[in-house]
Write a structure and sequence with these properties.
Shape: globular
Strand order of the largest sheet: 1-2-3-4-5-6-7
CATH superfamily: Phosphoenolpyruvate-binding domains
CATH class: Alpha Beta
Number of strands: 7
Structural class: alpha/beta
CATH topology: TIM Barrel
Largest sheet: 7 strands, parallel
Number of helices: 10
Order of helices and strands: HEHHEHEHEHEHEHEHH
Number of domains: 1
Helix content: 40-55%
Distance between the termini: 24 Å
Strand content: 5-15%
C-alpha cells in the first residue's frame, strides 16, 4: 500500500498496478514547504479528499493524531475524515509533548474508542488503523510498550494495528502474534529496506506501507540535480530523467 503525496503520484501508483494507496502526512507537508505534522486539519482534509477522488483505488488516510487531544475532538475530526471518501484512516498515539511523547495509556485507548464510535455512527465501513509511535519517539522498551498498546487498541475497536519503526523480524512476528487475528501494518523505509514482501508475508504481516519514503526518493533526485547545477554549472544531472511526453500521455488517458 504505497503512499502518494499528490494527485499525479497517486495516478501513477494505480497505473503500475497497486491495489490500495495511503496518504503520507510528511510527503504532503514537504510539498507545501512545511515540516511533518505542520499541515493544519482543513488543508489536510482537502488533500485527503483530493487523493481519494483522483483514483479508483481504496485510500487510507494518514490522519496523524486526529487533530485533537481529547477523545471528543478525535471523534469529531474522524467524522470529517470519513466524509472525504477514504476507505480507511489511521490514528496515532504521539502526543507532541517532548516530556511525555506518547499519550497516557488510558487516554490513548479512549481516543481509539472514540474514533471507532465515530466511524460506526457514520454507517460507512471505514477501516480504523491504530498506531503506536514507540519506535519513532525513541520510547524505552518499544516492543513492550507497543505490544501492550496495540493489544489494547485492538480490543478498543481498531481493525488494523501499526507500530511504525519496528524492523527486527522477531519483533514484527511478536506483534503479529500478540494482536492476531487482526492484521498488522509494517512500515518499510530506507532504514529497513532489506525487508521484502515475501519475508514480511512469512512473518504474518498483512499490510505494508512506505510512509514518506517515495516522496523522499523523489526529493533526493531533485535535490541532487539542483545542487549539481548550482555548484557546477553543468546539466548532466538531468540525464536519465523521466520523459515528460510519457507522463503527459499517462495523464491524458484519464477521463
Amino acid at each position: 500500500m504505497p503512499n502518494p503525496w499528490d494527485v499525479g503520484s497517486a495516478i501513477y501508483l494505480e497505473h503500475v498496478g497497486f491495489k490500495a494507496l495511503a496518504t503520507t502526512s510528511a510527503g504532503f507537508a514537504f510539498s507545501r514547504g512545511l515540516q511533518d505534522s505542520a499541515v493544519p486539519r482543513d488543508p489536510m482534509l482537502d488533500h485527503i479528499r483530493e487523493i481519494s477522488a483522483a483514483t479508483s483505488l481504496p485510500v487510507n488516510a494518514d490522519f496523524q493524531t486526529g487533530y485533537a487531544d481529547e477523545p471528543e475532538g478525535v471523534a469529531a475530526n474522524v467524522k470529517r475524515c470519513v466524509a472525504t471518501g477514504v476507505a480507511g484512516l489511521s490514528i496515532e498515539d504521539r502526543s507532541g509533548n517532548s516530556a511525555a511523547p506518547l499519550y497516557e495509556f488510558d487516554l490513548a485507548v479512549n481516543r481509539i474508542k472514540a474514533a471507532r464510535a465515530a466511524i460506526d455512527a457514520s454507517g460507512i465501513p471505514v477501516v480504523l488503523t491504530a498506531r503506536c509511535e514507540a519506535w519513532l519517539v525513541a520510547q524505552p522498551h518499544p516492543l513492550r510498550v507497543a505490544t501492550e498498546r496495540l493489544v489494547a487498541f485492538a480490543e478498543a475497536g481498531a481493525d488494523c494495528l501499526y507500530a511504525p519503526g519496528v524492523s527486527e523480524p522477531e519483533e514484527i512476528e511478536a506483534i503479529v502474534k500478540a494482536v492476531a487475528p487482526k492484521p498488522v501494518n509494517i512500515l518499510v523505509s530506507r532504514f529497513n529496506s532489506d525487508l521484502t514482501v515475501s519475508r514480511l508475508t512469512d512473518l504474518g504481516v498483512r499490510r505494508i506501507s512506505v510512509g514518506s519514503a517515495l516522496a523522499c526518493v523523489a526529493w533526493n533526485g531533485f535535490m541532487k540535480a539542483a545542487q549539481s547545477i548550482a555548484q557546477t554549472g553543468l546539466f548532466d544531472s538531468l540525464n536519465g530523467a523521466a520523459v515528460s511526453r510519457e507522463i503527459d500521455e499517462l495523464f491524458g488517458k484519464r477521463p
